[in-house]
Amino acid sequence: MIIGVILMSNPLEMIGFGPLGPIAGSLAAQWQAAMGGQIAAGSAFAILQSWGMTYGVLIPQIGTGIAGVAYVASVAREHLAGAAQRAKVVLGDAGRMIENQWRQDVDPIGHLHGAVEGL
User: Fold this and answer.
1) What single DSSP character describes residue 1?
2) Which residues have CB under 8 Å from 13's CB, separation 6+?
């Protein structure tokens, strides 16, 4: 989700690589001035400016999508945990077995593994 939030802020534009070229007074403008305005094709500056002009609108949209998917996944994970808890209460020992299996199929950072799909 953090990557999504970072991309939503459009880091290229934040440092001055805007859709119409370097933004006046920005880090990118200072960098361009330090090079005397002569930008070599294929240089890091040229690549970043190309990305800023080409993908400047798309980068925040991608970030929004990533953040949205991460949020939905975290909500789904909470619902799965609640379902396992309810199963434990309703089914007793069988519910505990389901919960234990679920815990084995989720690693410490929350990625689901194959066996969870069968629940």
Assistant:
1) -
2) 19, 23, 52, 56
Instruction: Locate 49 and state its tokens.
Output: 């400016």
pTM exceeds 0.70, yes or no: no
Query: Which structure tokens are listed for 3?
Result: 């990557």
**Going residue by residue through the chain (119 aa), what tens digit of pLDDT does each one get?**
677 667 676 878 888 888 888 889 999 999 989 988 788 899 988 998 988 888 777 777 777 788 778 778 877 777 777 776 776 666 667 767 777 776 766 655 555 555 444 44
Identify the domain containing residue 26 by its residue range: 2-118
Q: For the CA atoms of 65, 70, 74, 77, what is the dihedral angle to 10 degrees?
A: 100
CB contact at 8 A, 105 and 113: yes
The number of beta carbons lying within 10 Å of the beta carbon of residue 100 is 12
Look at the alpha carbons of 32, 30, 52, 23 in this order and tell me if their dihedral is positive or negative.
Answer: negative
The total number of structural domains that make up the chain: 1
